[in-house]
Design a protein that fits this description.
single chain; alpha/beta; eight-stranded parallel β-barrel; 9 helices; 17% strand; disordered N terminus
Length: 280
Amino acid sequence: MKHYMIGLCLGVQLAGGAVMAQTTAELPIAVQMYTLRDYGTLDEQLAAVEAAGITAVETVGMQGSSAEDLKSLLDAHKIAPISTHAQLADLRNDMGAVVTFNKAIGNDVITIPYLAEEMRPTDAAGWQALGKELGAMASDLKAEGLHMAYHNHDFEMVEFDGDTALEIMFKAAGPDLQAELDLAWVARGGFDPAQYLGRFKDRVFAIHAKDNAPTGEAMDERGFQALGQGVLDWDTILPAAEAAGVTWYIIEHDQPIDAAAVVQTGATFLTQNLPTTATR
């Protein structure tokens, strides 16, 4: 995967051998733009990312913009695209358009974000078939110099003979398909996020770093909370993510009341708590 080197060098050696703490911009921290979808204009959304010290984003499709205008805004805010969420239907219907747009903005990871209910397989054979299709797509994108990932929710946590649907799909897809594990949804699906990361060792492009509120709380935010303020055990999860080979930690919240605050809280939490091995 492409590792963007933006900002200062990683750590500055001081007298006596101490190393300065890394800044947010130096760490593999990004924001999923879906978090900010209701926060003003696209320019204002990117300004909120920049204000939090973050220099990378995962876009939502074409962000309602032309490639030229989006690239201009990203450059103006000194932000790099590290992935996009592209719908499976768009890849099926016109993969070339998705490739062209993302090459134009400098992005090289195409991530399928969601399957509508009518698109979800209902048995193991169906998940295997979908995996083979995604593996073929990943191979086609690889030929274009791009990578492909898949983002889960909780419905992929259903088990068939001991394997989750997500595992079945990835086994059928082959090594070109990478995982973007949304750990809040993994937990909602009944699995321990730290343990589940181990099942995808060396295939995890990124995690969606988000938190669940205690049961019955924050219902106006779909039961999610800002990173580090919920019930997930990040002291265990973050080292497990590093051990699994995670490249990016992407802040997300599905329905924030204050999106800019969620982004800032996530940036602060990850900057203070990422393992020292987490580098760009």
